[in-house]
Design a protein that fits this description.
Structural class: alpha/beta
Oligomer: single chain
CATH topology of the largest domain: Rossmann fold
Largest sheet: 5 strands, parallel
CATH superfamily of the largest domain: P-loop containing nucleotide triphosphate hydrolases
Strand order of the largest sheet: 5-6-7-4-8
Order of helices and strands: HEEHEHHEHEHHEHEHEHHHHHHHHHH
Number of domains: 4
Distance between the termini: 39 Å
Radius of gyration: 24 Å
Shape: globular
Number of strands: 8
Helix content: 40-55%
Number of helices: 19
Amino acid sequence: MSEDTFQISIAKITPVRLDEDAIVLGVPAGYWKEWLSDNYSAPIAEGIRAACGLTLRVVFESGYKAPETKVPANPVPSEEPSAKGTALPPPKEERGLVDLEDNQMPLDRRFTFDSFVIGETNRFAYGACMNVAQHPGERLNPLFLYSGTGLGKTHLLQAIAQEIMRRDPKARVMYVHSEDYLNQFVDAIYHKKTFEFRQRFRNLDVLLLDDVQFIGGNKQGLQEEIFNTFNVLYLARKQIVMASDRPPHEIGGLEKRLVSRFEWGLTTEIEVPDLETRLAIIHKKQEEQDYKLDEEVIRFLASRLKSNVRRLESAVFKLVSWASLNNVKIDIATTEEMLSDILSEEADSLLTIEDIQKVVAEYYDIRLADMTSPRRTANIALPRQVAMYLARKLTELSLPAIAEKFNRTHATILHAVDAIEEKIAESESLRREVQQLERKMKSR
């Protein structure tokens, strides 16, 4: 590992405590927790096992200040990680990023356009991001991506950054989480360096802001700062790309003037991948690890892990790693045993009819019991039909099974689905309501 890589990653870790079966390590911010967990949990655990003979889980917690003393790295002959598939951030001068000293989040070299698996549910978002990377500040500005967790927003934002820097190594590109932006803003106020902070962000060619939903709420000072920075960059025809778990108008506590600006350009959603895309993701991930799973296992994974690309990739990595280390063949029984925790998480995240009924009832402010009652007043009938429509669209239950949950016949469910489809085509407000309910349920 190079000195540069060590100082921007491992040197930020602070030992916190030793639990019964885990070592807890502290890092400065949430994005470091995610990045280090993805890239260094296994190598650190292996290092502990080799040095101490202990088998411990490695757990990262955010909110800890990085050590002030610079820790020297012990160089090894190769700068490549020992664990296959682990991505190391290149040195700052190779990344082409604005120098933020210790505040710059490293980019994951795996997150490129070439490594992104394209399907029907993400093709438009992919095309928009590629267009931005090829013509920053010209056509789609700002670009706003939204989706549930683990569907590729961060991958695409970092792909934009890396493609722009590949095309123009001198481009001033900044990829940053909203939480980190806030932390830097607060730190600048505390140290009376707000001028330097503003110069840092307002002299960029490209600003990529992730997890924008974080700036909602009562963070007025932060929203004012982002509003002014947005204006400066936009008027200078500099590219702005943002990502969130919901569209701008659904971010709670976001000022109307920011909602308006965030929607000036293109707003697009990345949806849950369909079966074909999930199959393609599995094939690509196993190829990256130079291993081939049986087609039966691949189809099992694609049929069981539907809601989260990150979870699907994690499952493939776990299976392939275990098979490679133990030189065994993976079958369905082994897959179920090895992935019991991941399959359980997926099952817990799947929507039930009861979930849909509860969310819709709360949204329209009616009683949950009205979903199954014989009452047919207008204020109850429409929400109930919406719930039936969403149950048919978002679950794989049969019509009789859905009908049973609503104390209705399957013909009634079919009628409700047809009625809502017609009303959505005629009413923009109802279409927005149904889309908002879908997002609420997908982001559970």
